[in-house]
Design brief:
Length: 130
């Protein structure tokens, strides 16, 4: 009588089966978002603090405070902060595939540049205001 076994003696573990990646999987895709987060998030925090500490825009421009130099530029800086935050999130949300590597790098550089530009706008506004 021949004895048959239900399967092979060695079976790969469940974790080994879950580690199957697509052929274009980028193993180092986490590096660019991490660097962008380490550089851009502190800049965004400083930008947010400067925005919260700056003067609130007036409700009406009757007494002509809107003519203050740099007033309209200071209103554009929060938009840059928002776009920089979206770019940081985009770095993390993109699929970890090699074809998205360029988009991920561009979004990371964009997040740092936008956060630094918003900080520069705030400093320029404070310099003109004083």
């Amino acid at each position: 009588m021949k004895t048959t076994f239900p399967g092979p003696a060695w079976q790969p573990s469940i974790m080994a089966q879950l580690r199957v990646h697509a052929p274009d999987h980028d193993r180092r895709a986490w590096v660019v978002p991490t660097v962008a987060s380490v550089v851009a998030v502190p800049l965004l925090a400083v930008d947010a603090l400067m925005f919260l500490a700056s003067q609130i825009p007036p409700d009406s421009c009757d007494s002509d405070p809107c003519a203050a130099p740099g007033f309209h530029g200071s209103l554009g800086a929060p938009c840059l902060v928002f776009l920089a935050g979206v770019a940081v999130l985009l770095c993390w949300v993109l699929p970890w595939r090699r074809r998205f590597r360029t988009v991920r790098i561009v979004a990371a550089v964009e997040s740092v540049v936008l956060a630094a530009a918003a900080l520069w706008i705030y400093y320029a506004y404070l310099r003109k205001a004083s």
